[in-house]
Amino acid sequence: DITNSNLLNNTFKSNRLADNPVDRIYSGAIYAGYLDNSNITGTFINNTAGFGGALCLDGIKNGKISANFINNTANNATNGFGGAIALKNADSYGAKLIGCNFTNNTALSSNGGAVYIPAVNGMDVIGCNFTMNKVNSDSAYGGAIYIKDSSKAIKIEKSVFDNNSAPTGDS
Predict the structure, then answer these.
(1) Whether 132 contacts 109, CB under 8 Å
(2) How far apart are CA 103 and CA 87, in angstroms?
(3) Reported confidence tier of residue 19, pLDDT bands at 50, 70, 90
(4) 48-49: strand order across its sheet
(5) What gap in Å lies between CA 48 and CA 161, rounded to an integer?
(6) Considering only CA atoms, which of 138, 89, 140 is closest in space to residue 113?
(7) Phi-psi region of 27 (alpha: psi -120 to 50; beta: other; left: phi over 0)
(8) Do 103 and 144 contact (CB within 8 A), yes or no?
(9) Which residues of 105-132 are buried (b: 16+ CB within 10 A; e: fewer)?
(10) pLDDT by residue (tens digit) across 97-137?
């Protein structure tokens, strides 16, 4: 877990986890348990993994992400969720994406071209830009964001969604 910590102003570029796209390998740049009362800022460029191309977390508990995600890929052949960010578990709360830029991220075989969230107990997406993110599977959803379930309100405001694509639900 990342608890009461900050990962600030770092660049993660061209990190790759496993060349076997069949294995469910988590995150090309950062994989951690929970982001708990912590912040992540910086830039993630050209990272690749089976699940969560740049960043994979078990969940977020009152954590904030304010970063740039460019050309990241989730390449698992059957469960390539979250081209830029993937959360694994369903008990996140107080999650915040603030001022993030998601550009040209891809989930090759499943949901969430930029962001995949299986379930969340409330979330804020504020001032984020989602541009040209995509999923490639014929049965996938959420070219920009895929949220499977939420027990509390999700607030999306002052964000831009431009040219994201998914065969069964563009944003």
Answers:
(1) no
(2) 19
(3) low
(4) 48-49, 73-74, 106-107, 134-135
(5) 23
(6) 140
(7) left
(8) no
(9) bbbbbbbbbbbbbbebbebbbbebebbb
(10) 999 999 999 998 888 999 988 877 778 999 999 999 999 87
